[in-house]
Amino acid sequence: MLSQNTTYTSIDINHNKSQLVVTMPFNPMAVMTMGFAALSKEQNWNGQWTSARVATFKKHYGSCPIVLSRMWNDMMATRTDLSRDDRSVKGFDKFLMAHHFIWAYPKNIQLLASHFKHIAERDAQGKQLWRWVSMLADLKALKIVWHRDLDDPNRPIFIVSVDGTDFKVWEKKHPHLSIDKGQYSHKFNHGALKYEIAIDLWTSRVVWINGPVRAGVHDRVLFDSGLESKIQPGKLVITDRVYGQQDRPSAHAKLALPNDMDRKTMANFKARARCRHETFNGRLKFFRALSDTFHHNPDKHVHVFEAVCVTVQYQMDNGGKLFDV
To answer: I need a surface site. Which of 70, 87, 189, 201 has the fewest CB within 10 A?
Structure first.
C-alpha cells in the first residue's frame, strides 16, 4: 500500500511519446486531465476542478478521478509483473478503457475502441481487454479481506450482513429441456450466475465474496460451502428469510434471521442492515456490465464482478460510505 505522504508526478500529456514511463503515482488532477485527453471526442477541459467536470468524468468511467487515482497507484505499487508499456500513458489509457468497459458495457468492440483516441480495436478485445479487467479484479487482494476485527470477542455479536445476488447471462442450451433449471434465476426469469457478498455491519467494507455458481443454487447452500466456517461461535450474520428455509438447525445458530418475535428495535436493526446491503447490491448494478445481460463467455463474468466490487469498495473508501445501521 502507498504511504499517504507519497509525492505525485506532474506530467505533460503527450500520447505520441509512447516511451514515457510512469514511475510515480498520479494525483486526482492528473487523472482527470488524462481521462479527458484520452477520449475521442474533445472535451472542454480548462484545468479547473469543478463538480460539473467531475460529474462528466464519471459519466465516462463510472467513478471520480480520486477513485481511479487510488486504484492506479495501488496497482502500480503492488504488481511486479507490469511492463514498461503498462506503466506508460498508453497503459493508463487501457486502464481507463477497462473502467469504461465495465461501466458502459458497449455492445461491440468498435464502440469500445471508438470511445478513445489511441485505443486500437485489437487492444479493445481478447487478451488485451481481459488482462486489464482482471488486473482491476486482482485488487480484491488489497480491498476485500476478512479482517481480524470480525473475530474479536469484544465486538458486537452481529458482524456482517450476507446476501446472494444474481446477474443475467446468456442462457445455456440444454440438450433435452427448453430451460436449464440449474441456470435459471427466478428473480429475472432468465439464465443467471449467483454470487455471495458479506459486508461488515460497522464499516463500509466488503469482507467476503464467493462465486460464481449457477443461479439455481440455493443461497444457503452457497453460504454453507465457505462463509459458514469463517463465522466464529457466538457471532451472528444478518440474512433474509431464504437462508432459514433449509433444515439445518445446527447452522441456524450463526444466522440472525427475520423473527416475528423480535422486539421492534431489533427488528428495525435487522431490516436496516438488510436494506444497507441491498444499497450496495444496487451500486453494483449501476455498472452496465452487471445490470445488462452479459454477452461474453460466462467464464469471464467473475472478472467483471470482482472488478466492479473492488471499484465500488474504492468508492466507499473515498467518500461514498454506506449508511450506518
So the answer is: 189
Instruction: List the end-to-end C-alpha distance of the chain, in Å, as a whole number.
Output: 29
| Confidence (pTM) | 0.89
Block means of pLDDT (10 residues each) for the chain, 325 residues, are: 38 42 72 93 78 95 98 94 92 97 96 94 94 98 95 94 94 64 66 96 97 92 93 94 72 87 96 98 98 95 98 97 95
C-alpha cell at 151: 473475530
Predicted pLDDT of residue 58: 97
Q: Which domain holds residue 93?
A: 28-138
CATH, residue 229: 3.30.420
**Residue 2 domain flag:** no
Residues 149 and 133 in one domain: no
Same domain, 200 and 232: yes
What CA–CA distance (Å, rounded) separates 95 from 128?
Answer: 11
DSSP string across 192-256: EEEEEEEEESSSS-EEEEEEEEETTS-HHHHHHTTGGGGSPTT-EEE--GGGGSS--HHHHTTEE
Cell 446491503 -> residue: 277
Distance CA 314, CA 74 (A): 11
Give how many domains the chain has, as a whole number: 2
